[in-house]
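Checklist before submission:
- one chain only
- standard amino acids only
- sequence pasted in full

Submission:
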Amino acid sequence: MSGTSHPSKNPPAIWFDAVGLRRKHRDILQGISWQLPAQGVGAILGPNGSGKSTLLRMATGYIWPTSGSVWIGGRQVGSFPVVELRKDVSIVEGTFVEPFYHAMSTLEVVATGLLGKLVVAYDALTPTQWERAARTANMVGLARQLDQPYRTLSTGERMRALLARGMMAKPTLLILDECTNGLDLPGREAFLATVEALCRLPDRPAVLVITHYAEELPACVEQILLLNQRGCVGAQGLPAAVMTSENFSAAYNWPITIRSDGGRYVGEARRADWVASLRGG
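Returned file contents:
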């Protein structure tokens, strides 16, 4: 598609248009075409090295494709200032739990999402803004922890605080990058239930979940992109079409069984062949 703006009156929240990336004579990504509608809920899955993080960095303007183009909200990335792009896209990362000043409260951490900073000490927020931060924290189940030091929260509570922080800027696209890594089972399920509640809000952003694991998909996911080890599309479309044992076994190059469980998915990687190979059999 030519031009730098999408002709549709309701353009997709994100669109990878024949995206490729080549580095040092090696193809990292090859011909990725996939889009997520405005206010849609999607997911990108795939093994280590399949290009999930590369697509994330492209969507936020940190790296550029060597072929194809990336579109956010109907505008081609690279055709408008990166600072505008990063107002439209919020990222919540599973590794981003520790960077705040040790004395900051949960409410203060959530409020930093309005500023795009890690502190609020040098910016005067209005009472209305503080009230919105408190409502957003309450929305993720942290009403009782508003004044509690953020550093004393459990890891699961911190991730929900970061989810609230990501919502504060009212993005058009909210990216959740491996947010349940390191959470125990109750923490993971609380986080995913919070995401599902968020996806029921009428004014929600589009939500894009990036993960390795079928179990980490919230039940509200509507569109899935599965990458394979070659950086190509392994499968894409509705969850029922993508989340199959055949697709995952091919994408991960390993015997994998996928089963559906009440709108969620469970994956099992059979290890007998690997154990046999270690034994020389």
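Reviewer check: The two ends are 52 Å apart (CA to CA).
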